[in-house]
Specification:
- The protein is α+β, with helices and mostly antiparallel strands and 152 residues long.
- It has 6 helices and 5 strands, in the order αβααββαβααβ.
- β2 and β3 form a beta hairpin.
- The relative contact order is 0.14.
Length: 152
C-alpha cells in the first residue's frame, strides 16, 4: 500500500530519437518537452553528459516519462540493431529485396559485438547473449545482409 503512495501521476510518455551529445532546446526536443512544460535545459545537459562517450550523430532512443508535477524520468537505449548492422556492413540503406538480393555481409564477430552493446539495454539485461545474437542474425537476414563466419 505504501508503494502506491510514492507513485507520481504520469502526464505523458514520449519516445524520441536524439543524436548522441546533440540534445538542444530547439526543435524537435524543445517542441515536445516544452509543450509538456518540462525543464528543457536540465534534460539537454543531462542527456548530453550521458551520451558523450558515443560518436556524434549516433541515434539514441529515449523513453521519457513526464509527471504532472513537471518532473521527468528517462531511459537511454543504444541505437537500433539495424543501424549497427548498416554501419558494420558499410551500407546507407538495406536491400530492397531481402532474401533475393544480398546487400552486403557481416561476420559473426560483428554480430557478437553488437549483442554486447545491446546486452546493456534495459529490456535485454535478462537475455542470454546467444538469444540476442540470434535476434541480430534474424534482423540482418531481413535486411538482406549475410552473416558469415569470417569476412574474406
Amino acid at each position: 500500500m505504501a508503494a502506491k503512495a510514492l507513485r507520481k501521476p504520469v502526464m505523458a510518455t514520449v519516445k524520441l530519437t536524439i543524436p548522441a551529445g546533440a540534445a538542444r532546446p530547439g526543435p524537435p526536443v524543445g517542441a515536445i518537452l516544452g509543450q509538456l512544460k518540462l525543464n528543457l535545459m536540465a534534460f539537454c545537459k543531462d542527456f548530453n553528459a550521458k551520451t558523450q562517450n558515443y560518436k556524434p550523430d549516433t541515434p539514441m532512443s529515449v523513453s521519457l516519462i513526464a509527471y504532472k508535477d513537471q518532473t521527468f524520468d528517462y531511459v537511454i537505449k543504444s541505437p537500433t540493431v539495424s543501424w549497427f548492422l548498416k554501419k558494420a556492413a558499410g551500407l546507407e540503406t538495406a536491400s530492397t529485396r531481402p532474401g533475393h538480393l544480398v546487400a552486403s555481409s557481416v561476420s559473426l564477430k560483428h554480430v557478437y559485438e553488437i549483442a554486447n552493446v545491446k546486452k546493456n539495454d534495459p529490456g535485454s539485461k535478462h537475455l542470454p547473449i546467444e538469444s540476442i545474437c540470434k535476434s541480430i542474425i534474424g534482423t540482418a537476414k531481413s535486411m538482406g545482409i549475410n552473416v558469415v563466419k569470417e569476412l574474406d
